[in-house]
Structure formats: structure tokens, C-alpha cells
Amino acid sequence: MSKNFARLGLAASTAALTGAVCSVTAFAESGSGTSASGSGFGTVGYLIFMVLLFAVMYFILIRPQKKKDKEAKAMQSSLQVGDEIVTIGGIVGLVVQVNEDNIVIETTGNRNKIRLKNWAVQENLTMTENAKRKQEAQIAAAKEKRAGKKKKKDSDDSDQGMLKD
Hints:
By secondary structure, the protein is an alpha+beta fold. It is built from three helices and five strands, in the order H-H-E-E-E-E-E-H. Helix 1 packs antiparallel against helix 2. It is flat, with a radius of gyration of 29 Å. It starts with a helix and ends with a helix.
């Protein structure tokens, strides 16, 4: 999905840039400018447009991709023996050996072993499951805390009602 969004952003930016270049060129050729000194804004406006376009491209395409690359490298460098992984080719396996720049995984019930480069690991299923469990535990703890506060508040309200009688 994010690749499609990136492609859409790139296509839209390219179309906007092409339209801007064509309109600036057409304006310059038409001679509809008031004078030679009045056409300076067109150049400055074009430069401002280019800077803004580059800034938008940076924040929409480049920055998120750098963040994803950084997360992927961190995940690939934190692989441990016993982790279940998915490769970029879709192979699911269990890590049995970790070296500096490659790993050995074991697949299927026949215990077939495959040696891969670290960059070929797309997802660490073990790490993902652990993160999901941790998040669910935090949510459950927050719900219990809210329920405890609500129960305490209800009991305090009922105690106050008895005191008023």
C-alpha cells in the first residue's frame, strides 16, 4: 500500500512540475508580461515553487522510506537463534545460525537448511508476536486500572449516599 502511495505521490509531483514548467514557458513566450522588469517574479515564483515541490517530495517520499530502512536494518541486525522469520521471497523458517552478514534457517519438517544474507529477511515473526503480546498486556492493564478506578468511585459514591441518610 505504501509503495502505491509513494508512486502516486511521485506521479502527482511529476505532473505538477511538468505543468508548472509548461505554464512558465508559455507565459514567457507569449509576451503577455507587462515589461521586462515585471517578468522577474516569474523566475522567483518558479524557484519558490521548485523548493516547495522538493520539500513536499522529501516529506512524502524520502523521509518515510529512510525510516522504514532504518527499522528494517535494526530488525535484521537483532536476529537471534530461534527466531521465526519470513524472507523477501516468502520462505518461512527458523533461524539456527547467525553470522556477521548471513544467517542459516531451517524450513519444513524435513529440516532443510538454507543460508541467506541478512538483507533478505523481510519480517521477524517472533519479534512481531512478542510486540503484539506486550501491547495487548498494556491495553489489558490499562482497562483493569480504569475498571478499578470506576469501581472505587462507585463504592465511594454509595458510601456517601449512606452518610447523607
